[in-house]
Each structure stands twice: as C-alpha cells, then as structure tokens.
Design goal:
- This protein is of the alpha/beta class.
- The chain has a single domain, classed as Rossmann fold (3-Layer(aba) Sandwich).
- Helices cover 28% and strands 20% of the residues.
- β10 and β11 form a beta hairpin.
- α3 runs parallel beside α6 and α6 crosses α7.
- The longest helix has 19 residues.
- The relative contact order is 0.18.
Length: 271
C-alpha cells in the first residue's frame, strides 16, 4: 500500500474515528489531491514517495521549474497528513512558497491553476494571506471545474480573516486541540467551516520527526478525509459527486463541538 501508514502519535484517530472509513476499505484510490505549498523536503520519504505523480516549482528560489524539493518540512508534513488519512491518493505538488514560506497570491493562484489543469479532485492550500482578485479567480475556476479547495484558516487568532480560506468556494479549516477546544492561535471567524487537529502534532521531516502546531496541519486532514468520502460516494452512487454533494457528505460527518461555536469530524456517522 502507498501512503504514510506512519505512527504520528496524534489525536486525529481518536476524535474523528477515521477507522470507520478505513474499516470499510476506503483508501483514496483513484482520487488526486493537489498540494499547494513549499514543495517536499524529502521526495524519498516513505509517507509520500509512491504517491507523487508530478509537480512544478512556481516559487522564485532559483532552483528551476522542475525542482519541487525544499529545505522546509512544511510541505512534506502537509502532504504526509493527506496520505495518512488517504494512503492511496495521487499527489500533484505545486511549489509556490520558498524555503522560508514566502510567496504571494499570484504564485498561489498559479499553483491552484496547475492542480486544476492536472485533474486534481481536491486541492489543499495550507497558506494564509491577503485577498487578491487573481487568487479568487483561481479558486472560482476550481469550483467551476468541480474541484474542492481546502485551506487553513490561518494562525492569527480570534476574529482574523485570511485568504484563500475566506473565499466562498473554499472549505476553511481551523484547529482543534485534544480537549476539543480551539487553540489560541487558530483564526476563528464565522466563515470557518470546521475544525481538525492542529495543536502539538508529531509530524514527519527529513530523517526525523518534529512537533508543531498550526491550521496548516488541520487542513490536509480534511483534504484527505474528502478523498475518502469522494471514493465512497462514487462507490455508493456510481457517479462522481458535485462539489455541493461532496460538501454535504463532509458536513454529514461532522458533529458540533461542545462549548465552542464550531464542528469537527466524526466518521461514526457514516456507518
């Protein structure tokens, strides 16, 4: 089996009961996910080495358009969280941030468009920044092509708004901790669709693991979950779901979090 059946010692399994979907045999097979991020620190890492099918470098790091490697573990961690949930997905890598995580909305838009043009079903953007029309246009193009865009809400705390997460055609994901609370850093506003683990997660890096927090790591858990749900929908209905149908399937797998104004995944609801 492809993908990162690595032991990350996190609380996603406990909160989401993802075993319910795994137990039904869903792995993300036949689903393609775009990773718009820093690139991949270690292309030979067992969590993603058999999943990546192509990639392009839109950053200005001077390493060449075909070089999707990075000294940052961010993109590797994000991609590995997708394959942890959905180990059989195909990955398309759009490197739009340099090794320091710097980029701009135009490069992010280029990455989204690249993933659309390479037939991604789902695109994960663990990126938060300002609004720019070119970025919104790319998101709307994805929606028109029936592609789901998932984005991290950002790490600015309560009341902050970031893009592309805030756009109408994007699923905005904030963080939840192991105690079902919103961590102080998670951007929280009425446009956040749902929460996923993002606090003190153990993540893969080249030759080691790291512990980090952020909504960057919440978003790919939802992207991977969408891959499983799309595979299940196709199996159950014998046709490809629309974005609205897949979004409904996602919300049907959410429960309201106690004491906070939001919801999180619980896949026991699909049984």
């Amino acid at each position: 089996m492809k993908g990162s059946q690595i032991k990350m010692n996190n609380y996603f399994n406990e909160q989401s009961h993802i075993d319910a979907l795994w137990g039904m045999g869903y792995t993300g097979e036949g689903i393609r996910v775009g990773i718009v991020d820093t690139g991949i620190q270690d292309l030979s890492h067992p969590s993603i080495c058999d999943n990546i099918i192509k990639g392009h470098n839109w950053s200005l790091d001077g390493s060449g358009r075909n070089n999707i490697t990075s000294s940052s573990y961010h993109g590797l961690a994000v991609a590995s969280l997708v394959t942890y949930v959905a180990p059989e997905v195909e990955l398309v890598i759009a490197k739009v941030l340099d090794d320091e995580g710097c980029g701009n909305p135009m490069r992010t838009a280029n990455g989204i468009n690249y993933c659309i043009d390479n037939n991604c079903d789902i695109i994960n953007c663990s990126i938060a920044g300002p609004h720019e029309p070119i970025l919104e246009e790319a998101v709307n193009k994805a929606a028109n092509r029936n592609v789901m865009v998932v984005a991290s809400s950002g790490n600015g705390g309560y009341g902050t708004i970031n893009y592309p997460a805030t756009y109408r055609n994007v699923i905005s994901v904030g963080a939840i901790d192991k105690n079902y609370q919103i961590p102080y850093f998670s951007s929280d506003n009425p446009l956040v669709d749902l929460l996923a683990p993002g606090d003190n997660l153990t993540l893969p890096a080249k030759g080691c693991s790291v512990v980090d927090s952020g909504t960057s790591f919440s978003s790919p858990l939802v992207a991977g979950s969408l891959a499983l749900l799309k595979e299940k929908f196709i199996n159950d209905n014998n046709y490809f779901p629309t974005r609205n149908e897949l979004y409904t399937e996602l919300l049907n797998c959410c429960v309201d979090a106690n004491n906070i104004r939001s919801r999180y995944l619980d896949f026991r609801r699909v049984i």
